[in-house]
Specification:
four-stranded antiparallel β-sheet; alpha+beta; 7 strands; 5 helices; single chain; elongated
């Protein structure tokens, strides 16, 4: 009886500690999938976590879209616990060939992917593509 209890406690502790190894999984967007499926990319600003309240800061041309998708695929996102966060602040709005769209921020996506990355890394990527004073001001606001 004591041996069975001891084994159950050891197994529970092992599951608890080893389960933590799977919590911080990395996630990368696939450049090939993005390149083949995304038709258009915009840099947008979302106010107050309201996806209907998008302000388009810049529509990227084909060359810029390809560059930003490549850079996005190199950013390491991590899965996070809890409810999926809604994108907020300056984000990317991707328009897919199948008619859907996805807003991707440093913290969360509009398709309820429970992921986040380094805010400074994400904003550094975005900053390269903002070139007017108005766009720079919006960037500084965040």
């Amino acid at each position: 009886m004591k041996k069975a209890l001891f084994l159950n406690v050891v197994m529970a502790l092992a599951l608890f500690f080893l389960g933590g190894c799977f919590l911080d999984r990395e996630y990368y967007f696939s450049y090939d999938e993005l390149k083949n499926n995304v038709e258009r990319v915009e840099i947008v600003e979302i106010e107050e976590w309201d996806l209907k309240n998008l302000v388009v800061l810049k529509s990227l041309d084909e060359e810029e879209s390809d560059l930003i998708l490549k850079e996005l695929s190199e950013i390491q996102y991590m899965f996070c616990w809890g409810d999926p966060p809604s994108p907020n602040g300056i984000c990317l709005n991707l328009y897919y060939a199948d008619g859907t769209e996805e807003v991707i921020g440093w913290c969360g996506t509009s398709q309820n992917r429970n992921i986040e990355c380094s805010e400074s890394e994400f904003m550094g990527m975005i900053e390269q593509f903002l070139d007017s004073e108005q766009e720079a001001e919006a960037f500084q606001k965040n």
